[in-house]
Amino acid sequence: MESARVAEPAVAPAMDVDKLTYEIFSILESKFLFGYDDPKLLFAGGSPLPSSASPKATPARATPTGKVCILSIDGGGRAADGLLAGAALVRLEASLRRRTGDPDARLADFFDVAAGSGAGGVLAAMLVARGAADGRPLFSAEDALAFLTRNSLRGGRGWSKPGGLFRRQSSSSGAAAFRKVFGEMTLRDTARPLLVPCYDLATGAPFLFSRADAVETPAYDFRLRDVCAATCAAGSSSPAAVEARSCDGSTRIVAVGGGVVALGNPTAAAITHVLNNKRDFPLAAGVEDLLVISIGSGEAAAGGGASTSEIVRIAAEGVSDMVDQAVAMAFGHNRTSNYIRIQAMGSPQAKKGGVAPEEMLSQKNVESVLFRGKKLAEQTNAEKLERFAHELVKERDRRRGADAGQQLGLGGAPAVVKPAAECQGQQQPTSYSNLVSQMFTSIL
């Protein structure tokens, strides 16, 4: 008699090996960059790991919370370093106006945080600067781009000198330009949280200008004109450094610009800030709760006989690319939906005969692929901006629907971003500039 065959248990389909590799690597990158390691947050579209797999895992939320929208802008010490970003921001703002039918829409209406370094810091500060009369964002993307374009055409004066956008606070025309734009506005006078990095020679460590810190104490509240001067300072010696003092005079920063000391890409700093700022972003627990656009400043091709300043610039571009690659890998498979990088080859020029920033938007940038080098992106920079504009409008509509449902007593998704009014008077955690400075130091 033939022995009975024992039925083998059905085997569940195994997770794709490449995807599993992405997830494991993403957990490691997220732990290193942002200080969290919840695997559940990284397995989008699949089942979360058992709670026993990670004692720090957060229970799955029954109701979607939406996404925190982050704008990050690279930059160096030259006004021209912000021209590509400025052109991209103008294109993005125009798309948002077209999709919403609101001709007065501003980028700050759709983003929760703006971060920028160097010329990118100037752009970010202008976009979130708040008008005193109505509280609306004071400048459009067109205004910000026009400001950089004017200063990049100044010839040998001020910003366009090889030394950078800002050389000496007492005599530079750049200082007068910043004063004319921002007047006496401080970090508190912004429509959205602002993050701008520099390097403090006094302490020998990175420093992050942050509205969250400014709200906590006047000792961290700086005038926006000084913030821009600090992030654009281009020297490594005291004559070229910029001194910035807090509004109450208690904090003194001897600043060198972010681009010079490899802080040109502030994306990781912005993400770290959001994930650790539970006062303003109480439900932002991981990359699935973020919607991030990172805009580069263009990449100059290396040539023979490069000058010292060109070599420094190329090195800074390499570090910015490293930050982009690390952030992209930390997002894992969410990289294609929650993280977008705008970058192009060539150095943008405002003068006739150079590469126009608008032309660079038609390029396809190179993206990193885990363990497989790099590949050409499927979409152009302009197409990526259109896709991101769609996501921003969708997130805004989701929030409006949730607010309407709560007003009608129908519940709705909890707010991943707290309104500024609800944050007044709440206890602020330890200085975010110190927290992010530690992150910067670990990367460098």
TrEMBL record:
Its EC number is 3.1.1.-. GO terms for molecular function: hydrolase activity. It comes from the Eukaryota. PANTHER family: OS03G0784100 PROTEIN, PATATIN-LIKE PROTEIN 6. This is Patatin. It is an enzyme of class 3 (hydrolase). The keyword Lipid metabolism applies. It comes from Brachypodium distachyon. Belongs to the patatin family. GO terms for biological process: defense response; lipid catabolic process. The nitrogen atoms of the two glycine residues in the GGXR motif define the oxyanion hole, and stabilize the oxyanion that forms during the nucleophilic attack by the catalytic serine during substrate cleavage. Lipolytic acyl hydrolase (LAH). Keywords: Hydrolase, Lipid degradation, Lipid metabolism, Plant defense. Residues 71-271 form the PNPLA domain. The lineage of its organism: Eukaryota, Viridiplantae, Streptophyta, Embryophyta, Tracheophyta. InterPro entries: Acyl_Trfase/lysoPLipase, PNPLA_dom.
